[in-house]
Fold this protein.
Amino acid sequence: MLRVLLARLAQGHRTIGFPDAPPALPDRLRGAPALDPTRCPDGCRACVEACPTGAIALDAGAGTAGSGLALDLGRCLFCPDCVEACPEGAIKYTPEYRLATRAREDLIVHGTLERLAGALDAKMRGLFGRSLKLRQVSAGGCNACEADVNVLNTVVFDLGRFGIQFVASPRHADGLLITGPVTANMRLALIKTWEAVPPPKLVIAVGACAISGGPYVDHPEAANGAGSVLPVDLFIPGCPPHPVTILDGLLRLLGRIEGDRRDQG
């Protein structure tokens, strides 16, 4: 027992300082993609054709030279296929971890993601701002998003210090945190879980699958995400999103991080 206590003492303080201090993120992190439509030659569709989920499209009104690019972060798998396919380097990944939005349309970007998730209204913040209980539902996920949600309970992130906890029963919850594309076998279970949560209640979609269906988009056995079944209050893109990305989105929703623009966040 003494050896255990001494080992713990040697470990020191492990909880990160976020949001008061910027998070230490790995160099290999693929954060928010940035588009440079001025480097996109006319008629080039290399990135469009390379994207496995159709997240990239040519938008004639988006760019300043030739055809512009539009990228749907809700569909993006954050794979390197588009970057490797682009001969002009018009797409690149950045270290930007702040990705959550309140509206689905805010995830469609023409350069960089500008509008971040804003806080709930004053009444909802009064209810959930200091104590938010969530029931996590894996609606057919691969367990990647589920793992990054689960790690928020560890000593490094310590989600409970913000008054946010995961509960076993939807009847004890204030909302649902959904991962996975909502498969046909999970659709009814998700709806029943939602109905069991007492109002007022929230829905948070985490990961590309929960937002758009991810790699299973338009599959006959998938519902193209939680938004096709339930009203979603917060979208957190990624495949999977980094735990800090999830935490940032939750804190913005509760008004613990202010500013819905990157230059204010």
About this structure: The helical segments are 2-11, 46-50, 81-85, 122-128, 144-150, 184-196, 208-212, 243-253.
